[in-house]
Amino acid sequence: MRLSNLFLISCLAGGMAILTGPAVADALPESCTSSATTALSADVNVQKEANSLFQDIRDEAIHARFRADRLRAENRSNQVDWVVQGDQLTLLRHNVNVMGAKLCKLQSIESGLAPWQQTEIQRIAAVLPLMADNTTDAINFLNAHQDELWLPGYHVYFHNLYSEARQVAHTSHEGVKETRLMQRQEVNPAS
Fold it and tell me: Which of 17, 36, 46, 156 is most deeply buried (CB count within 10 A of its CB)?
């Protein structure tokens, strides 16, 4: 399933139906590629930008993990309300979109970053499409089975989303930690 299949979801007051539409296409465009290396790429500002982007992705991943965990808990306790589930999926979809936009910015400066930072970006880029797919699948399941949210297949999406968000949070945290370490070494080089 492609990232462009991630759909918007919102509750309608009258019909209480959930509508879908494209959402991730703008957040994770296929044209998001590394820019050419320039003198500016080696600048400390690029490192600061990368650090900020890694931190932003980490924050969004933590929010996504919290929402996925909340959805898991609601389903385990049989306190399943499809409207509430739809609201949580909307927020989770937003987290995925924001992470996609931040990842795109990281990828645009990737060629000017250290090899270990490029590796962290590639790790995030490998997991984020899985999150988008699981979010899409959960939304589609919710749309088709509003009265059958107790089915085990629905629960799998939240388990996967929780695990994937945890992985992205960890990877982006490593990116922040390593960037800070590198910045300290530049300020205080070993004698």
Answer: 46
174 closest CA partner among 55, 77, 76, 38:
55
Helices (H), the chain: 24-27, 44-76, 82-109, 115-144, 152-187
**CA triple 32-37-41, angle to 5 deg:** 95
d(CA 166, CA 35): 29
Q: Is the separation of the CB atoms in 138 and 70 below 8 Å?
A: no
Residue in 38, 174, 187, 169 with CA at minimum distance from that of residue 117: 174
Q: What is the pTM of this model?
A: 0.74
The count of structural domains within the chain is 1
**How distant, in Å, are the alpha carbons of 1, 21, 115, 133 from that of 8?**
16, 5, 35, 13
pLDDT digits (tens, 9 = 90+) for 35-53: 444 444 456 688 889 999 9
* Domain range enclosing 121: 3-22+44-187
In-domain check, residue 60: yes
Output the domain CATH number for residue 150: 1.20.120
Report the DSSP beta bridge partners of residue 18.
11
75 domain residue, yes or no: yes
